[in-house]
Amino acid sequence: MKISNTRFSPHDKVMSILYVSLLKAALESKGYTLLGFDGSDHDLSDYSQKISTAEFLAILEQSLKPTAACGLGFRYGELFDLAAAGTVGQLLMACSNLEQAYDYILRYFPLLSLSFQLDATWVKDSYRVELDPHGTPELSDPAKWFAMESLFYAILKQARYLSGKPLTYQHVTVRYERPPHWEMYQTLLGCDVEFGANIPSITVDRDFMESTISTSNEPVLAMKERQCRKILQRCQSQYSITERIRTILMRSLPNLPSLESMATELNMSRSTLYRRLQNDGYCYQTIVAEFRRDQALNHLQNPDLTICDIAEKLGFSNDSNFRRAFKKWTGTSPAELR
């Protein structure tokens, strides 16, 4: 399993204005108008400008109100391409196959400035990616439709572009109930879609993930990976040491690093990391325990996961060890809390 998440506040200006520019194009292609944006067309073409997630969602909500919102997300996802993803997009184009590309998406997802948490894992011959809109405010139904449609279709469209194959998903789930245009989901995504599910997810088969990428280029891949790593390190330098540790823990599950390995990830010595944590009143093992506790509490809200599943996700050797640790953290058993 690999997990990636953003650590941005909804009010941090980290989203490129390109997201708004593409929204304008999607709306106008259906005869609608962009609303709630005070800037000019020149501002929309200056992709160095940034807005916050909260600002984008406010523009989205206002723009969708006069529309039927039926399939607008799919149109937006169709317009979004790898060029819009900047250095991350160039990195993906240089990968050898889609599995490698998806690994890099999980690693560098924060650079896309999208407020989602991703949880990806192999289940036999199927690869399942679960999405959690972490830290985003409650959205209207049209905005929920737009968000899932655009993300799911953009991913599929780019997978088809990279592989040169007419790929389809194996299965898709979304949280909201069936929208009026629900038939578009099966037509455009190429699979059955489960509405009203507990967690939004995409499932693909092994052939999908093993599809080779025609633009693969190892020297370019190495160069773009270094660039993405440096950009991510600059972003993470804004976080506190505990936030940086939690970000790495999220990415490392279920194999959580030792203090020494964590220090290496943070580009510092073990003694420096120990001293910095001590000065801030923290202990590394306490941070790890609190992280596992928080993840366990989150997973317990998903009725599809058994206690054994949760124990495995959090890196415990067996469910008995997980139960003991959970009772130590909370004073009760996971089953009782559930």
Q: Secondary-structure blueprint of this entry?
A:
Blueprint: E1 2-5, E2 13-16, H1 18-29, H2 41-45, E3 50-52, H3 53-64, H4 72-79, H5 86-93, H6 98-108, E4 117-123, E5 126-132, H7 141-163, E6 171-173, H8 183-189, E7 193-194, E8 201-205, H9 206-209, H10 218-236, H11 241-252, H12 259-265, H13 270-279, H14 284-299, H15 307-313, H16 319-330, H17 334-337
Parallel strand pairs: 6-7
Antiparallel strand pairs: 1-4, 2-3, 4-5, 5-8, 6-8
What does this 3D model show about the protein?
- The protein is of the alpha+beta class and 338 residues long.
- It is built from 17 helices and 8 strands.
- Strands 1-4-5-8-6-7 form a 6-stranded mixed β-sheet. It has a two-stranded antiparallel sheet with strand order 2-3.
- Strand 4 (117-123) and strand 5 (126-132) form a beta hairpin.
- The longest helix is centred in the middle third of the chain and has 23 residues, at 141-163.
- It is globular and about 60 Å long.
- The model has no long low-confidence stretch (mean pLDDT 89).
Q: Briefly, what is this?
A:
With about 350 residues, this protein is an alpha+beta fold.
Coarse shape: globular
pLDDT average, as an integer?
Answer: 89
**Order of strands in the sheet with most strands:** 1-4-5-8-6-7
Label the structural class: alpha+beta
Q: How big a fraction of the residues is strand?
A: 5-15%
User: How many beta-strand runs?
Assistant: 8
Compute the gyration radius: what is it? 21 Å
Number of domains: 2
Uncertain runs are none
Helix share bin: 40-55%
- Would you list the SSEs in sequence order as H and E? EEHHEHHHHEEHEHEEHHHHHHHHH
Reported for the largest beta sheet, the result is: 6 strands, mixed
**Count, helices:** 17
Distance between the termini: 23 Å
